[in-house]
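#dry-run=false #mode=assembly
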Amino acid sequence: MKIAIIGAGVVGVASAYSLAQRGHEVHVYDRRSGVASDTSSSTAGLIAPGHSYAWASPSAPLMLVRSMAGAQTSIRVVPRVDIPLLRWGTRFLRECTPSRSRSNTLSKLALAKYSQQLMEQIAVREELQYWKTDGGVLYLYRDEKELGKAVGNSRLLADHGRVQEVLSSSEIPLVDPALASSRAEFAGAIHDRSDGTGDPHRFSLGLAASCERLGVTFHLGEAVDRVETDGASVDSLVVGARRVRADGYVLAAGASSPLLARNSGFRLPVYPAKGYTLTARVKNAERAPTVGGIDERTLVAWSRFGDKVRMSATAEFVGYDRSQSPKDFKGIIAAGNELFPDALDWDTAEYRTGLRPMTPDGPPLIGRGRLDNLYFNTGHGHVGWTMACGSAQMLCDIVDGLDPDLDPSPYSPIQSRRH
Ligand SMILES: Cc1cc2nc3c(=O)[nH]c(=O)nc-3n(C[C@H](O)[C@H](O)[C@H](O)COP(=O)(O)OP(=O)(O)OC[C@H]3O[C@@H](n4cnc5c(N)ncnc54)[C@H](O)[C@@H]3O)c2cc1C
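#status=ok
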C-alpha cells in the first residue's frame, strides 16, 4: 500500500519504519526542515514505563482548582474562555475516578512496556546511538507523606511487572553518585530499575536513515494544509499547491493533530500541554547526573545526553502558545542548582518549549477512525518517546489487518468516550 504519514516526530518516524519494514511504500510529510524537531526535541528523555500514571487521577481536580486560583501547581490552567479546553477538561474530570484512573494507567503501562522492548530491539538491529542509559529512573521525594503515598501507588505498577525499589535518602547516591552533593533534602526515592533514558531526536535521526534505506521518502519543509475527504474516506492531502494521494493516511502530527482532523470532520480529543526544556553542557562530571530522574516536588525531570544534561518541567494548558521568556526557566535552573550544584554551565543552555499531545484519559489514539483509510497515531501526552515504537507496531498491525500483540481497544479512536 502507498501510505502518507503527516508528522515526522518520533511517532511518525517510528510508524514509517514499521510500515516500510512490512513492505509498504511510505511518504512522510513534515512542515519542519528536520525530523523530530518539534516536541520530540523537547522531551526530558525518560524512557519510563514506571512513569505511566494517568494525569487524570482523584487528586487532579483539587490541583486544577488551586492552579486556577493562582497556586504554583505542576499542572497549570489559566482561567479563560477556550471551548476546546472546556470540552477536553470536562472529559478529563470524568476520568478522575479511582477506577478510571487505574484502568488508564494500566493501558499506558502496557503500551509503554511493549514499546520499550521494541525500542531496544530496533536500536540493536539498526545500530542506533541515542545516549541510551539503563540505570533506571529515580523518582525523588522530599516529603515523607508524599513518599508514603507514592509507595502506595507504586504497588499498582509493581503488581504489573515493574521493579519499583524504595530507597532511603542515604541509598539514593548509591544509584546516582551525583546526588551525594545535592543540597535538596530527600525523604527517599522510588527507583524503577527497568526505566532508562535516551535522546528521541538522535534516535529519530538514526531511524529516519534506516527508513530511507527501506525506501521511505521524507518530504521535509512541506506542511499539509488540509485533509480532503468525501465523507467516507480521505481523498487527498493538500500540500501547498499540490494534492497528494495515497491508499492510506496516518495522522501523527502530535499536538497539531486535532487541527488537521477538524477539517476532515473529526473532533480529536487532544489538547496541548506546554512544557519547558533546557539542555546545558556539563562542567563538573562528578556532580552531573548519570541516571534519569524526577524531583517530585518541583516536577523537574532530567536525563544525561553525553556531555550535556537535559532538564524539563511544567505543564501549562495555554493552547498553542509556544512563547518563552527567561523567567519560564528560572524554576528549572533553581532546581538544577539545588540538585546538582556547580554541575552545569548555564551559559551554554539552549531553551525550548514543547506541546505534549494530551488525551483526557491518557492512552494515545491508535488505529482507524470513522474514515476507512485514515489512521491515527497521536495523543501520546507526556510519554510519547517511551510509547513511540510500540504505538508504531500496533498501528502497522491494524493497517495490515493483523491482531496486534496488545489488545488495541483501550487506544481505539472510535470508542464513544473519545468523541
Ligand atoms: C517538556 C516535555 C518533556 C517531555 N518528557 C518526556 C519524557 O521524558 N519521556 C517521554 O516518553 N515523553 C516525554 N514528553 C512527551 C513527548 O515529547 C511527546 O509525547 C512526543 O514527542 C510526541 O511525539 P509526536 O511525534 O507525536 O509529536 P511531535 O514531536 O510534535 O511531532 C509532530 C510533527 O508533526 C508535524 N506537523 C504538525 N502539523 C503539521 C502539518 N500541518 N503538516 C506537516 N507536518 C505537521 C510537526 O512539525 C512535528 O514535527 C515530553 C514532552 C514535553 C513537552
